[in-house]
């Protein structure tokens, strides 16, 4: 495998292996056993912090569309709904990461995979394209987060 | 050696009307109480660290009891940041004096607080009779303006500098030893607790924030401070994200009564117009 790409989130590096493709919603996709395994990128995990809860709204066999909501993650810094990076049929849910969500922090590109799809990942971004996407979106992502952080409870506009 | 203990009563802000009556009641019952020396000062959080009132507090000797509408942790670290020496509650091993911080909260019983002060005074070992401090036992006038800045719990702060990287307003800096410095506290955007939420150690307090976890309440959980990343993880296009942010900024600007804050938001929207999204 060639050297991974690195996106600097401030002073913190987000490592992007080059042996897989990436979705704009910050998930990676990699072929495995005739399926496509997906998981969260280091960028996403860095924003989340320590993951301690994972919940799926779908089951194996479900047909999902790219962008459809499929689950929910809760971590030390943030929570988020999870969205499908691919259009296809869900083949497997990783039971190991359900039992130990911390694998998303400690082994996010291998044992920390989330789901396996019957799907075609060719339409996703190359690592270089994903890096460019992160670089373009980072200033706005920062502002979006800071805006959310700075909002007062009484300012629910 | 006479055992005397200084009691500092920090005036509630005008919008803390719920505790003003409590403060006045306590002041009346503490004045002239044996073994205690009462000082009423303007709201501690609003005081300038280099000002005469804080200087008079720094000069006090012996253990302190501080009554304030702030949470005790926020009161303590506000004083520490201003250079007042001491340990929170019990004396430390270094024989530093104790600073007992009691919170004036709405509905609190003045008699119960007096009982706490009496218990503290009975076990205090002040070095000597406390000199008359700079404040007055009469109700002081309010400071010229209400401040808004972060107060750091140095026992929690790990020095990771995430706040420095995160703050948009130049509040934080680094001292000569590489440690976190509140370089420009008054550059902080009024009402913004962002760095408090991002701090991995929960070390940053905004004592006047409505959320107890941000204001320094030890019992409040940081769990409620989490970001919702759903918008980012939905894979929104940057231009969509920008539109969302712009809409929010515009709505905020329309409702803002603070002209300075409005100017900042206008600048933000102008800046986004120039991004050619």
Describe the structure.
The complex is a heterodimer of chains A (157) and B (277). By secondary structure, chain A is α+β, with helices and mostly antiparallel strands. Chain A is built from four helices and eleven strands; from the N terminus they run E-E-E-E-E-H-E-E-E-E-E-H-H-E-H. Chain A has a six-stranded antiparallel β-sheet with strand order 3-4-5-11-10-7. The termini of chain A are far apart. Chain B has 277 residues and is α/β, with parallel strands linked by helices. Chain B has three domains: 119 residues, Rossmann fold (3-Layer(aba) Sandwich); 75 residues, 2-Layer Sandwich (Alpha-Beta Plaits), CATH 3.30.70; 44 residues, no CATH class. Chain B is 35% helix and 13% strand. The chains are: A alpha+beta (157), B alpha/beta (277).
Helix content of chain B: 25-40%
H and E string of chain A: EEEEEHEEEEEHHEH
**CATH homologous superfamily heading of chain A:** RNA polymerase II/Efflux pump adaptor protein, barrel-sandwich hybrid domain
Average pLDDT for all residues of chain A: 88
Give the averaged pLDDT of chain B, no decimals: 79
The CATH topology name of chain A reads OB fold (Dihydrolipoamide Acetyltransferase, E2P)
Please give the number of β-strands of chain B: 10
Shape of chain A: globular
What oligomeric state do these chains adopt? heterodimer
CATH topology of the largest domain in chain B: Rossmann fold
Strand order of the largest sheet of chain A: 3-4-5-11-10-7
CATH class descriptor of the largest domain in chain B: Alpha Beta
The count of domains of chain A is: 1
Largest β-sheet summary of chain A: 6 strands, antiparallel
In angstroms, what separates the terminal alpha carbons of chain B? 74 Å
Quick tags:
heterodimer, A: 157 residues, alpha+beta, OB fold (Dihydrolipoamide Acetyltransferase, E2P), three-stranded antiparallel beta sheet, 11 strands, globular, B: 277 residues, alpha/beta, Rossmann fold, Alpha-Beta Plaits, five-stranded parallel beta sheet, 10 helices
